[in-house]
Structures are given as structure tokens and as C-alpha cells.
Amino acid sequence: MVTAIVFIKADVARIPEVAEQVAAIDGVSEVYSVTGGLDLIALVRVARHDDLATVIPEHVNRVPGVLSTETHIAFRAYSSHDLEAAFSLGQEDGI
């Protein structure tokens, strides 16, 4: 599995639509709206490096409202935690 982190600058008026369209692309596992110099961060997970050449330039970059992207390919994961478990802290079973 190859993971890429894609920083996306988008037309500010279209961020929600851009995020939804990017999230619907095969290979995109998550899209986050963020603060700072970027508008969105997408996580792309594909089987092969060559698949990145399809997902990012042929699909993500062509979403209307995407102004630019910057892609970072992950070499190794040092932490794999269950995000759902983290968000359910403090909740009791059956509530």
C-alpha cells in the first residue's frame, strides 16, 4: 500500500464542494479541511506508485475549484491508532 498526503489549495468559495468531490475519487481515503496556508488535506492510499499518477494529476487536480496541490509520499507509518476509539473516549457502553 502506498500512502500520499496531498495538500490542496482551493477556491475558498468552493471548499465544501471541492472536498466532497475529492473524497469521492477512488483511492482517496480521507479529506480534511484545515487551518493555515492550505484549505484541504487528502490522504490517498493506492496499491502501487503508478496509481498515484492517475489519482492525483488525472483526478484530484482536475476537480473544479482545485487551484494547486502539493504531494508528499509516505515512506513508513510509525503509528497506527484507532481514530474511532479516540473519539469515543469518555462514552460508556449503551449510552
TrEMBL record:
<dbReference type="InterPro" id="IPR019887">
    <property type="entry name" value="Tscrpt_reg_AsnC/Lrp_C"/>
</dbReference>
<dbReference type="Pfam" id="PF01037">
    <property type="entry name" value="AsnC_trans_reg"/>
</dbReference>
<protein>
    <submittedName>
        <fullName>AsnC-like helix-turn-helix protein</fullName>
    </submittedName>
</protein>
<feature type="domain" description="Transcription regulator AsnC/Lrp ligand binding">
    <location>
        <begin position="7"/>
        <end position="76"/>
    </location>
</feature>
<dbReference type="InterPro" id="IPR011008">
    <property type="entry name" value="Dimeric_a/b-barrel"/>
</dbReference>
